[in-house]
Amino acid sequence: MTIRKETLSTIAGNLRETGASLAAHNAAAIAPTIGVPPAGADEVSALLAMQFAMHAAAYQAVSAEAKAMHDRAVKILGASAVGPEPSPPPGAEDGPPPAGGALNGG
Q: What does the CA dihedral 44, 49, 55, 60 come to, rounded to 10 degrees?
């Protein structure tokens, strides 16, 4: 399988833009999700607000890991787009296999 370098470059650019947009949305979600005030002055409301904040913090941690993996994928795609041309697979110069091979009863 051969992939054109222009295609890899386009994909890397699209992924970079998507990642930047997602990072901006995640950053915007920090304060409203972690800083949810308790609905009331009772203990249950305080515990629910704390639980919501803990879930929000866990989401941000997972989001940071996903961003790191995303950034590595974009970097690899970008490097592949500017790297050397791929060499043909072994045996590609030999042409197609003979018509009467072992699978064809020959």
A: -170
**Rg of the chain on CA atoms, in Å:** 26
Q: Is 83 in contact with 73 (CB distance < 8 Å)? A: no
In the DSSP assignment, the letter for residue 15 is H
**N-to-C CA span, the chain:** 29
Instruction: Give the residue carrying structure tokens 């690899």.
Output: 76
Question: What are the residue ranges in the chain where pLDDT is below 50?
Answer: none
Q: Give phi and psi for 105, each to the nearest 5.
A: 80, 15
Q: What is the pLDDT of residues 29-50, one digit of tens each?
A: 888 888 889 999 999 999 999 9
pTM of this structure: 0.64
Which domains are seen in the chain, by residue range?
Answer: 5-83 (1.10.287)
